[in-house]
Amino acid sequence: MSRLILLNKPYDVLCQFGDASTGEAGRPTLARYVDVPGVYPAGRLDRDSEGLVLLTDDGRLQARIADPRHKMAKVYRVQVEGEPDDVALEALRRGVELNDGPTRPAKARRIAEPAGLWPRDPPIRERAAIPTAWLELTLFEGRNRQVRRMTAAVGHPTLRLIRYAVGPWNLEGLASGCWREEQAPTVPAPRRRSVARSRR
C-alpha cells in the first residue's frame, strides 16, 4: 500500500533528503524531520518558505500532485509588506505579468493573521513605519518563487510565506516540524493507447 505523509516544513529547511548536490552542505533537510524510508517530496517548497510538503513512495501519486497539468490547487498564507488595496488584489486574481509571462488567474483575499501561527526562527524583519498584512492566495500552477514574484509585482513584497494546503490536504493540527500519515489515494495506471493497424 502506498504511503502519504504530510509535513509542516520549517523555515530554512531544504526540501530534499540530501544536500550534497546543492552546494548547501550543512543546511537542515527533510531527513531531520521525517525518518521514513522510501518516501520523496511531491513537488518542492523553497528553503525560505514554510508549510505543507507532501511525501510519498508512489511515483504515480507523486507525479499527480507535482505536475502542473493536473492543476491541483495550492493555498498559501502570505504576510506582505504594506496593506494591499482592492486594485492589488484584483491584479493578483486576474494574473500579473512576470518575466516568464503572465500568471494564470488566482484566488486572492485579505485574511486576519492565521490562528495558531507558530513563531518563525528567525523572525521576519519588520519596519516600524510600514504595516504588514496577511493574504490568502490560491494558485493553480507552480512556477519558481511564484508567490513572491506576484506580490512584489503588485507592490507588496512577501515577508513570510506558508503553504497551507495542496489539493484536499492541509496543515490543520500540524505543528512546525511535525508530520502525520494519511491514506493515500489510488492513482490508476495510465491507459495504453491502442495503435490502429492499417490494412494493406
Describe this structure in words.
The structure is a single chain. The chain is an alpha+beta fold. It has 2 domains: 82 residues, 2-Layer Sandwich (Alpha-Beta Plaits); 94 residues, Alpha-L RNA-binding motif (Alpha-Beta Plaits, 2-Layer Sandwich). The chain is 12% helix and 28% strand. The chain has 3 helices and 11 strands. Strands 1, 2, 3, 4, 7, 8, 9, 10 and 11 form a 9-stranded mixed sheet that branches. Strands 5-6 form a two-stranded antiparallel sheet.
Please tag this protein with its features:
single chain, 200 residues, alpha+beta, Alpha-Beta Plaits, 2 domains, nine-stranded mixed β-sheet, two-stranded antiparallel ribbon, 3 helices
Q: Outline of this structure?
A:
This protein is an alpha+beta fold.
Order of helices and strands: EEEHEHEEEEHEEE
Kindly provide the name of the CATH class of the largest domain.
Alpha Beta
- What best-fitting shape do the alpha-carbon axes yield? globular
What's the main sheet like?
Answer: 9 strands, mixed
Please give the structural blueprint:
Blueprint: E1 3-9, E2 40-41, E3 50-56, H1 59-66, E4 74-81, H2 86-94, E5 97-98, E6 101-102, E7 107-111, E8 132-139, H3 146-153, E9 158-166, E10 169-170, E11 179-183
Parallel strand pairs: 3-9
Antiparallel strand pairs: 1-3, 1-11, 2-3, 4-8, 4-9, 5-6, 7-8, 9-10
